[in-house]
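User: Round two. Same drill as before: sequence, then structure, for each protein.

Assistant: Same drill it is. First protein:
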Amino acid sequence: MDKPTHLIEFETMLLGRHLQLNAPRSRRGGGQLDRSAYTLLSRIRMEGPMSIGQLSDAFGLDASTLNRQTAAMLRAGLVERIQDPDGGIARKFRITDAGELGLDAERAENISGLERVMAAWSPGEVSLFAAYLKRLNSDIENLDGRPWPRP
């Protein structure tokens, strides 16, 4: 691990592990969203109703994968199918009130966890880390051609 990129790869692997380990604890504590639902709902909230084709383009996932994920979200009452508000043929998925509440609760829990982890960090350190994460994600998205909408 003589290069900084080797260390970054190792640390992002661990970060992914830590985030996955938190998921079961989150659901035991009342959370209801798995990682795919959390990500899909976040995107739909940012962009508004989306079709399977739009979700496939946005995430680079196969339609069959998205059909399984959205079917689970439909059964859970997190999204509903609607006619395309723009008059298109494809039906779209819109986040429901229950989906909004679940997403807000999960996000609040995630933020609370990050605040506990970073309690000893200065506000400047937190801001700098956030800026570097945004830059890393944006550069990945630009290389992939799938930018994520940001507030």
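Second protein:
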Amino acid sequence: MNFHLMTTTDAHEIVSWKYPEEHSFYNFDDSEETFAELLDGTYYAVRDQDERLIGFFCYGHNAQVPEGRNQHQYTGDNVLDIGLGMMPELTGKGLGLTFLQAGIDFAIQQYQPAYLRLSVAAFNIRATRVYSKMGFAQSGAFVNNGTSFNVMKMKVELE
């Protein structure tokens, strides 16, 4: 998988992705604010060996859910928050572990964190299973705009 800083072309494609109903929660809008965030240097587009855009990762502050910050869910030293999304047509096909591992490897290479942390909507059982298999464990929970979120964290094994 090839990671590169998000480009305008990548951002336009990702904004066009539409997830099925239960997961439509993850759809981006096409506002100026959305594009500004996607292009602010914290988002990386991920392409496969055929150069097809298959997903993205976000690292740092933008990977945090605002209400989680308000409830002090994102504390600790040398903890890197990650957010991610995979092309809707690729979800549910058993690619999650490989995709997540690539994002973790990239995070370790770029940021050298002691811990990785992510927030996942509690209803997203499929994603939670992938995160748990990768070694993330629940470290907190909060509600944002009526949606329950679990905060999950893992210790990074540096080589």
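The two ends are 20 Å apart (CA to CA).

User: Perfect.
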